[in-house]
Amino acid sequence: PATGSSSTPRQQIAQALSGSGLDYLDLLESFQKQAQENQLFTPDQGYLTSTGHRLLAEILYQKLDATTALPRSAESSGPHETSAHR
User: What is the per-residue DSSP string for the chain?
Assistant: First the structure.
């Protein structure tokens, strides 16, 4: 980073990855919004809770769906739609 840069480390990472052609998914804002109402991490070790894993899955699904990285199926409507959950 250049001396005197006012960008945050998150912005610097996003710019570097974007400039290299790599996709970058910043989860901070989504997790901060949900953390106000839900416990996303275990208090003792900081691992994701089931709610945190669910949020992560939903965010990843939306990102992959938006980039058409997911196969299209008439039966699929989200990360919770699997044959094991029907």
Answer: --TT----HHHHHHHHHHHTT------HHHHHHHHTTS--B-TTT--B-HHHHHHHHHHHHHHHHHTT-SPP-TT--STT--GGG-
- Give the residue extent of every domain in the chain: 24-85
Q: What is the pLDDT of residues 16-64, one digit of tens each?
A: 998 888 888 889 999 999 999 999 999 999 999 999 999 999 999 998 8
User: Of the given ranges (5-14, 17-26, 70-79), which has the lowest mean pLDDT?
Assistant: 70-79
In the chain, the N- to C-terminal Cα span, in Å, equals 50
Q: Which tokens is 39 given?
A: 């416990």
Neighbours of 5 (CB within 10 A): 9
